[in-house]
Amino acid sequence: MADSAEGAGRGPRVLLWSARITGGIFVATLAFVIAVNIVGPTRGVLPQGSEWFGLAMFPFGVFVAYALAFRWKFIGGVLAIVCLFGWWAYVGFTLRILPIAAFVAIPGILYVTHALLSRRREQAGRPADEAP
């Protein structure tokens, strides 16, 4: 049986790799969708006015957020959640869109959870007389 110190790090590691795998899948999918729409043979009408805000939130904002989260977990996770909330606000808080936004937010939630657990573990491991 593994000792408690070795087993204690397993949970955050599982969270991190779950976030990286699911986030990587979303990054690859969004990159494909963006590339197809940019260079595809059937170019549509360019977005007008506030449509640029919706596109900046999703897919572009989420794509950038999950790409950043590979290096900066907390910042990328929070940015992804904020972008998805902004996109949901843009489409009018419809319940029809909520499952999509919630599904795409899973890696962001995992990144934020991992970052917070890691910070708490780091703070708990410091001596009491050391400044935070």
Descriptive terms for the model:
mainly alpha, 132 residues, 76% helix, disordered N terminus
Q: Describe it for me?
A:
76% of the residues lie in helices and 0% in strands. With 132 residues, it is mainly α. The protein has a domain at 52-125. It is elongated and about 55 Å long.
Kindly name the structural category.
Answer: mainly alpha
Task: Give me the count of strands.
Answer: 0
State the low-pLDDT regions, or none: 1-7, 127-132
What's the helix-strand series?
Answer: HHHHH
Q: Calculate Rg over CA atoms.
A: 18 Å
- Average pLDDT, rounded to a whole number, is 86
Q: What is the beta-strand fraction?
A: under 5%
Termini separation comes to 34 Å
Shape: elongated
Please count the helical segments.
Answer: 5
Describe the biggest sheet? none
In percent, how helical is the residue content? over 70%
List strands and helices in order, with pairings.
Layout lengths: L3 H5 L1 H30 L11 H19 L3 H18 L7 H28 L7
Helix pairs in contact: 2-3, 2-5, 3-4, 4-5
